[in-house]
Amino acid sequence: MIVAIVVAAFLWHLSGRKQADAPSLTAPSEKLPNIALADADAGKITRIELTRPDDDDNSRMLRIAIEKQGADWAITQPLKTRASTSKVEALIDNLKNLYLWTVIDRGDGLYDQYDLSETKALHIVAWKGAEKATDVYCGKSIARGQLARIPGKEGILALVNWGQKGYQGFLYTRSLRSWRETSILKFDEDAAIEVEITNRNGVFQFSKSSGAWTGSFAKYRKDGKLGQPEQDWQKFDEGRIKELLRAYHALGADDFGDESDKAGSGVDRADQTGGIIRIRLQDQASEQTIRVGRLSDKASRWAPKDGRWAIRDGGDGTLFVLSPWTAGWAMAGVSKFEIADRK
């Protein structure tokens, strides 16, 4: 008899652990609201608002607003800049997997304890034009799922947050910087036919013909005017141009500046403070131009030591920080493009 009781208790303990680790998706005893975004509505989302306590100061709320602009997405609050389309699309895709499966509490007395109050929760709102397609508050996560509540209705519910589908919290709680589009340039390296670099050393001209690169360099004279290009550059190494193109064909920002940084960035006089790189592509009249300015004084966990300010001509005016290795191509001297001497 004692053995039977012990076995029964052990089996009960195992069943309890299994339910805590991965709740069973049995049908709820009552019909719960369906908050999953319909597949047909995913392509109609025009605005997303994410409001939650600021990571740097939990006493204040941070609201990030992202809006559809043509085929792309833009952050419109708390600043105006490009948003990462792939990250926005991943969030919208997850909105289709928000499934409420059980009731945790039927009142509102535990909202603050479970981070579901107005000042603690993550508030997710997605709009289809003037109509709300998704509106939900999310708080703490427990063994039974992601705790949530529906605006205007009392009670704490649990969202599925396990398995391949379900609530994916990291898609909604990215930092403001992580929502920004980091891509600056994107082109096919093989499509490049001309590269020009202008800096305090002079002007470099590189061109490709029949798959091979040639280069010339003109120094500034003492009167500040540009001299004639040197015609016979015997030590020129076309492999260096290929390295440059590998660095710039999928150029991304390491960090960002704001309007207050622009005045001291030096990008408006990049030919003197850093350098200018112009890349011309086959069958394209416009050039891909990056202006590299002074050393950045950014002090964030993303900003590389000795990084430099940079801006793209024809872009939206966003000020970037580039790593010293990437920015170094804009400030290169002659030896940067020559065959290394062997000792």
Word description of this protein:
This protein has helices at 2-21, 39-42, 85-95, 176-179, 238-248, 259-262, 270-273, 324-328, and strands at residues 47-53, 61-69, 72-77, 81-82, 100-105, 122-128, 131-142, 145-149, 156-159, 192-199, 202-209, 212-218, 255-256, 275-281, 287-295, 308-312, 320-322. The model is unreliable at 1-27 (pLDDT under 50). The protein is 18% helix and 31% strand. The protein has 343 residues and is of the alpha+beta class. The chain starts with a helix and ends in a 15-residue tail after the last helix. The chain folds into 2 domains: 27-179, no CATH class; 189-337, no CATH class. Strands 4-3-2-1-6-7-8-9-5 form a 9-stranded antiparallel sheet, covered by helices on one side. A hairpin with a 2-residue loop joins strand 7 (131-142) and strand 8. The protein is built from 8 helices and 17 strands.
Strand-helix topology:
Blueprint: H1 2-21, H2 39-42, E1 47-53, E2 61-69, E3 72-77, E4 81-82, H3 85-95, E5 100-105, E6 122-128, E7 131-142, E8 145-149, E9 156-159, H4 176-179, E10 192-199, E11 202-209, E12 212-218, H5 238-248, E13 255-256, H6 259-262, H7 270-273, E14 275-281, E15 287-295, E16 308-312, E17 320-322, H8 324-328
Antiparallel strand pairs: 1-2, 1-6, 2-3, 3-4, 5-9, 6-7, 7-8, 8-9, 10-11, 10-14, 11-12, 13-17, 14-15, 15-16, 16-17
